[in-house]
Amino acid sequence: MSGNVLVAGGAGYIGAHACKALARAGYTPVTVDNLTTGWAPAVRFGPLEVADLMDRARLDEVFARWRPVAVMHFASLSQVGEAERDPGRYWRENINASLTLIEAMIAAGCANLIFSSTCATYGDQDGVMLDEDTAQRPANAYGASKRAIEEMIGHFAASAGLRPVIFRYFNVAGADPEGETAEFHDPETHLILLLLDVAAGRRPSLTLFGTDYPTPDGTCIRDYLHVSDLVEAHLLGLERLLAGEVSRVFCLGSGRGFSVREVIEAARAVTGHAIPVAVGPRRPGDAARLVCGSHRAGRELGWQPARSSLAAMIEDGWRAHRDLLPRFWHRNDGKESE
Ligand code: UDP
């Protein structure tokens, strides 16, 4: 395994974990990130090109310099709540960034693309297990922008020789088990990270968004997958592309759903903290239940989630949150984060 892999969004949570996995497998991960939501200190496993994906001239330079064998595209605005408040930004930036990146790839003769899509492209589906053939009916602007990019990729595959692997992620959680990189967002919106913030004394309580969903305990059900398992699938997808096999869509989830209340209990057990919870209204755009019912990645890529128990994800996240973030995480301007 060798060659440069361009990692769009490599300074973000999943991108940084992917860079570590790529470097370990013998590739050179070249991060392209504008550092608006990514963190320069997270780029530890290969070079960093600070560039905006909507800047075609900069992308052309980056492709000419590194001549990547493939692109992994993690860069995206990805918060459901924010997407509901400002849908225009999600349509404009997610679509334009992906379009510019794909056109730069085609111009540079780099055809292999691994694209991060999402189970948010499915929307509310009345309790069905979701797989690659489930109709996509996104319930929010984030999911809608990702579905549109999937469609765009299909057109470039059909007419311009693009060779994509599309992964539809369910909820990604946890951190590098070796403690070298972690999950961190500013502002934080993700359930498990907010629970860890409360346990660490950084927030007084968690607001639970809705207890009147049509689920057994009334709270939303999600399928959580360890970030290490997720990036492992990306390496297998990359091998598939480099071996010349056909393009595919794969759902990536553990196949088990946990309610928000179950996640809260697991976080209490792992951290030993009472974690106070206040019940609030539903968050607009949230689907009641999103659980992966696909085994395609197992069958075709030989992928199996190995570390995706709720306890392991929260333990790895908690260790990184407690040990790594306060010591090593610096803001992009060089000042230490709180
Ligand atoms: N959630 C919550 N309180 C919070 C943040 C999230 O109750 O402060 C719920 C949210 O409504 C959803 C689940 O936790 O049902 C997971 O949300 P997250 O934002 O982590 O991921 P998403 O499912 O939106 O990708």
TrEMBL record:
Pfam families: Epimerase. Its EC number is 5.1.3.2. Coiled coil: none annotated. The keyword Isomerase applies. This is UDP-glucose 4-epimerase. The lineage of its organism: Bacteria, Pseudomonadati, Pseudomonadota, Alphaproteobacteria, Hyphomicrobiales. GO terms for biological process: galactose catabolic process via UDP-galactose, Leloir pathway. Its cofactor is NAD(+). Pathway: Carbohydrate metabolism; galactose metabolism. Keywords: Carbohydrate metabolism, Isomerase, NAD. It catalyses: UDP-alpha-D-glucose = UDP-alpha-D-galactose. GO terms for molecular function: UDP-glucose 4-epimerase activity. Homodimer. It comes from the Bacteria. PANTHER family: UDP-ARABINOSE 4-EPIMERASE 1 (PTHR43725:SF53), UDP-GLUCOSE 4-EPIMERASE (PTHR43725). It is an enzyme of class 5 (isomerase). Residues 5-253 form the NAD-dependent epimerase/dehydratase domain. Signal peptide: none annotated. InterPro entries: Epimerase_deHydtase, NAD(P)-bd_dom_sf, UDP_G4E. Belongs to the NAD(P)-dependent epimerase/dehydratase family.
